[in-house]
Amino acid sequence: MSTDQVVVATQVATTQEDADAVDAIKGHHSELAEQIATLTDGLLEAAESGDGFDAARAAAVDFLTGTLMPHAIAEENHLYPAAARREEAGLLVESMIAGHRVIGTLVDRIANEESPIRAAAAGHALRVFFDAHLVDENDRILSVLAGDPDVSLAKVVHGMHELLGEETHGEHGAHE
């Protein structure tokens, strides 16, 4: 490894700004996963008890359509095209986009399923699928991008609240 590379968990970033961007994206992914877990637990508990399901569903759908799906769209518009430039990442990017379609289908089922138990089951499926999806995102897509000397991950995600959350890190603008 040359002196201009920075080790980030299991991947190598070509700049400190890219290492910071990886950390920010992974942090936001963790926040998304935690919120999904909380909301889907709420759906399951409400379906089980028969009390408060409409409110639990409304909270879940609000988060999923207002935060999670815009995050997925931002990934498809910014991260994935940058990763797809690398031949070895093409099939992975296609798989990640297909995963977003599965997530979208599950969000629709949570929102529209008449049976609270079936809607809660779709919520649980979303949680499990999203956790698996994050492994590919964090360990594979981000590795491709952070390790590509021809791509500045920090520039790709600059100002992308959907990808990074609302916090601001660093003077170099890894995100706003």
Beta-strand share of residues: under 5%
Q: What's the alpha carbon Rg, rounded to whole Å?
A: 17 Å
User: Which parts are unreliable, with pLDDT below 50 for 5 consecutive residues or more?
Assistant: 1-10, 167-176
Number of strands: 2
**Terminal Cα span:** 30 Å
Helical fraction: over 70%
Strand order in the sheet with the most strands: 1-2
Instruction: Tell me the domain tally.
Output: 1
Helix/strand structural class: mainly alpha
Q: Roughly what is the average pLDDT, rounded to an integer?
A: 86
Tally the helices: what do you get?
Answer: 6
- What are the secondary-structure elements, in order, as H or E? EEHHHHHH
The 3D shape can be described as elongated
The largest pleated sheet is described as: 2 strands, antiparallel
Pfam families: Hemerythrin
Domain Hemerythrin-like: 21-142
InterPro entries: Hemerythrin-like
Protein name: Hemerythrin domain-containing protein
List the main descriptive attributes of the protein structure presented here.
mainly alpha; two-stranded antiparallel ribbon; 6 helices; Hemerythrin domain-containing protein; Hemerythrin-like
Summarize the structure.
By secondary structure, this protein is mainly alpha-helical.
How are the SSEs placed, and which strands pair?
Elements: E1 6-8, E2 11-13, H1 16-49, H2 53-84, H3 90-112, H4 116-146, H5 153-157, H6 161-164
Helix pairs in contact: 1-2, 1-4, 2-3, 2-4, 3-4
Structure description:
- The protein has 176 residues and is mainly α.
- It has one domain (16-164).
- It has 6 helices and 2 strands.
- It has a two-stranded antiparallel ribbon.
- A hairpin with a 2-residue loop joins strand 1 (6-8) and strand 2.
- Helix 2 (53-84) runs antiparallel to helix 3 (90-112), helix 2 runs parallel beside helix 4 (116-146) and helix 3 packs antiparallel against helix 4 (116-146).
- The radius of gyration is 17 Å and the shape is elongated.
- The two termini are 30 Å apart.
- The model is unreliable at 1-10 and 167-176 (pLDDT under 50).
